[in-house]
Amino acid sequence: MNVGQLIFSTTFLATVIRMTTPILFAGLAGLIASQAGVMNLAVESIMLTSALAGVLISAWTGSAWIGLLGAVLIGIGMGFIIAYTAFTLHADMVLNGVAFNLMMTGGTMFLMYVATGQKGTSTGVPSKVLPTVSIPLLRDIPYVGEVLSGHNVLTYIAMAFTVLMFYFLFKTKLGLRIRMVGENPAAAESVGINSKKIKYLAMCLSGMFAAFGGAYMSMAYMSWFQNNITAGRGFIGMAASALGGNMPLGTLMASLLFGVADAVANTISSLNLPSELVSMLPYVITIIGLVYYSIYLGRKKAPSAKAGKGAKKEEEKTA
Amino acid sequence: MKQEMIHRDPDDFPIGEEILRMSGITKVYGNGVLANENVNFSVKKGEIHAIMGENGAGKSTLMKILFGNEQPDRGEICFKGRTQTIESPKKAVELGIGMVYQHFNLAESLTVAENIVVGQEPGRGILFRQKSAYDAVEELARKYAFDIDPKSRVRDLSVGKKQKVEILKILYRNSELIILDEPTAVLTPQETEELFHQLLLLKQNGYTIIFISHKINEVKTICDRMTIIRAGKTRGTYEISELSANDISVLMVGRDVVQKIEKPAAKPGKTVLSARDLRYRNEHGAVMLDGVSFDLRQGEILGVAGVEGSGQRELAEAVSGMLRPEGGAVYLDGREITGKTPGEVRALGFSHIHEDRMTYGVAKNVSITENLIANRCASPELGGKAFFDGKKTSALAQKLVEEYQIVCKTPSVPAGMLSGGNIQKVVVAREMSVEPQVLLANQPTRGIDVGAVEFIHERLIRDSREKGCAVLLISSDLNEVLEMSDSLLVMYKGHISGYFADVSALTEQELGLYMLGLKRQSEQELKEALHEKV
User: Fold this and answer.
1) Do A192 and B119 touch (CB under 8 A)?
2) N or C: which end of chain A has fewer CB within 10 A?
3) Are A43 and A238 in contact (CB under 8 A)?
4) Is-above-0.90 flag for pTM?
5) Cβ neighbours, 10 Å, residue A12
């Protein structure tokens, strides 16, 4: 089979969608935080923690859905804790996020060992898997049906969230307030909006989306937890939201791009290429994408660059 | 629910009645500055009331107190017949007071309508109805003749339009008292005219407007009454029609206490710094330098006076290399330095005491020693090519700390730990100890204690008289420019409106007329500021 055949095969395209799902969740997590003017660097660790939580809770309760619920609640809780340390205790958000990521890399391993006595993977734990959905009518369309139908329920939830996110941001009062706070908290405060509250909310929502992404990794993409199961997808998701201009459609497109890169890496590893080289691909694309994006943005902003500089000066002054 | 709570009818209070009274307002800031002292001020409903005063007179503080940004130490605010405590801007908005700051509070990437309605969005339940927002804003804009598209993004608007968005924001919240803080400072003449038309329309509709300004012509054009504040105290409220422009200028500009500074007569030498026809527009397109030319000679102190924002800052940055003028040239000791970097200009014997000492003067977290040597890092007396000689640097620092009377435990503490006066002494020590040919001192004594002020004045006079240093002294402290300068330039709207070869012959009344643009010297008279042909 040559590369062309590979790329347009239904299995390849279905793989793209499978690979895109967790990145899209992480992207939404990055998006909502950024819209409120907050940088949630801890998406990766929230995903990782929720991935473990989903496995453990579903194993204990025997229900995949309760597992998912638990994972999501833990994600929201982590978002809240980070918000509390940053906005109430005034800890530095970047250092905070890095600390969370480092802590949970080891922390999830430790917790898994404490809870199950296993190291490395949780294959011995009777955890549940979320169901796949076969969509009537769609599944009967040749080619398209094979690509789009039969994915895990979380994949469709991710798509639905993307659409809902658009409506939330642009068609609700709360969405407008989030955007206002994200862009100019002083302006929001001047009309009586509590920007701290809005930022807390955004962090909790961010934690929720990240948790869905984590649950997808351990309860759909795989059926167990293993060390570093997210493998940087939280960071790639943040890159996706940045690349997508923190807009729902843009984030979806950027996530698809990274999904393709992942799928290509997956697929061509069957060809005789060094797998280490291939696994670099998504990250190389991330860097190229971000550089392109900043150059593109730089050009777009060029005419008003001077004004921007002035505005920045003002910001520094008020800070 | 909240919307209903705030909603009120602007007609429920009779026109001409006293809508606001601030009595006995006193405010002392933490650093001991007495910003307002027993200020009494009242506004009638339906009038445009000007608050006039120089920069630092206390206008802004009074308005901050009214809008809830600051709390008065003493005094009472009575709004619509009721005594109020305004603890936050939010409370002010709820009472029906709105304020347009000089720096706008807008989210650039959102639309005009979104910026206006946020916080009180139209729509049922949690939903936000964009269309109702557009309609509401459009109706409001039409009513008061604001030419603005509610759908456009704020970042695409001109400064004048952004200001309109701010005013609409206030109108949308049903405020009836609108404070405008120097609204015309950022506007073109056409935009100013348009704004005035709209303000008069608002007045006809029963709104009350407080108009902060130091531009006499504008105040005479649209205001009904005015209150003059000088040095933190109100100097009276007048009907505009009762005062001439000259009367206003005398009331606004003046010194309460004249502090004499003794200095030997200057013996000016050759010209060392020349500016010729400097032109510059800022990022908003406003003309900040409009053909500025002058010569500065050895051994003289040339003062630059003017209402703040008349181009002094741009002038300082243009001669020091921090900003590249659009036209004109600067010469230092006969060599053109236009377009050179600050480092290159300094290497030719130029020192600069920047007006903003915390941003451009010192690095707060860095030691006094390191701040003191920042302008001579490459100097061979401090060590070899790559390394500092610790002994030499600390010896130098110790010497400067003693010579300039910088009060500190040791020169190795961070500069940010010092008091304002001592920080300024660090800057002055660094800039003067290299024995520059030209010293640009921009607001060298603003906001520091009397002892430090006296010390810095003494040093400036000594260096100019004994070492022949040429000093360009920019200051908004009237006492300072009048007492320190040998000769004086007055700036107004980016050009030089007057040059006085002998400051001792100049009265403050006369100076006020030039500062406020009521008088301007002819081209011929201004040629006197040029001692040399270039």
Assistant:
1) yes
2) C
3) yes
4) no
5) 17
CATH number of A60's domain:
1.10.3470
Return the residue of B nearest to A305 by Cα.
B283
The pLDDT value recorded for residue B256 is 67
DSSP characters over B187-242? --HHHHHHHHHHHHHHHHTT-EEEEEE--HHHHHHH-SEEEEEETTEEEEEEEGGG
Of B308, B318, B307, B306, which Cα lies nearest the Cα of B281? B318
Q: What is the rounded CA–CA span in Å between residue B410 and residue A188?
A: 45
Q: Is B80 exposed, middle or buried (0-12, 13-18, 19+ CB in 10 A)?
A: middle
Q: What's the confidence (pLDDT) of residue A145?
A: 86
Give the pLDDT band of residue A174 (cuts 50, 70, 90). Answer: very high
Reduced to 3 states (helix: H, G, I; strand: E, B; else coil), residue B333 is: coil
Q: For residue A71, what are the CA distances in angstroms to A49, A218, B339?
A: 8, 11, 61
Question: Helix, strand or coil for residue A313?
Answer: helix
Q: Tell me, what amino acid is at A210? A: A
Considering only CA atoms, give the Rg of chain A. Answer: 20
- Closest to A173 measured CA to CA, from B462, B381, B130: B130
Report whether pLDDT(B2) > 50: no
Closest Cα in chain B to A307: B283
Tokens representing B225 are 């009454």
Question: Rounded CA gap, B431 and A262, in Å?
Answer: 59
CB proximity B267 to A under 8 Å: no
Domain ranges, residue A97: 3-318
Note the pLDDT tens digit of each residue in A198-256.
Answer: 999 999 999 999 999 999 999 999 999 999 999 889 999 998 998 888 999 999 999 99
Domains of chain B: 18-253 (3.40.50.300), 271-349+434-529 (3.40.50.300)
Instruction: Report d(CA B374, CA B359) in Å as an integer.
Output: 14
Tally of domains in chain A? 1
B379 close to B393: Cβ distance less than 8 angstroms: no
User: In the structure encoding, which two tokens stand for residue A210, read together?
Assistant: 């990240």
Distance from CA of B107 to the nearest CA of A (A): 5
First-last CA distance in chain A: 60
Distance, in Å, from the CA atom of B135 to the CA atom of B120, rounded to the nearest integer, reads 14
Set of chain A residues whose Cβ sits within 8 Å of the Cβ of B359: 316-317
Nearest-5° angle of CA B465, CA B468, CA B472? 90
Strands B350-353 and B233-239: unpaired
Work out the average pLDDT over B353-360: 91
Q: Say yes or no to pLDDT of A311 above 80.
A: no
Torsional sign, CA B389, B392, B393, B394: positive
Q: Which residue of A has its CA nearest to B67?
A: A190
Distance CA A100, CA A86 (A): 12
pLDDT score recorded for residue A315: 37
> Per-residue pLDDT averaged across B27-55, rounded?
86
For residue B508, what are its two tokens? 């403050």
A193 touches A184 (CB < 8 A):
no
* Pairing assessment for the beta strands B34-44 and B18-28 based on DSSP bridges: antiparallel
pLDDT tens per residue across span A89-147 = 999 999 999 999 999 999 999 999 999 888 888 888 888 999 999 888 888 888 888 88
Instruction: Mark yes or no for CB contact B107/A309 under 8 Å.
Output: no
User: Cβ separation of A173 and B123 shorter than 8 Å?
Assistant: yes
- Please state, in angstroms and rounded to a whole number, the distance separating the CA atoms of residues B490 and B521: 10
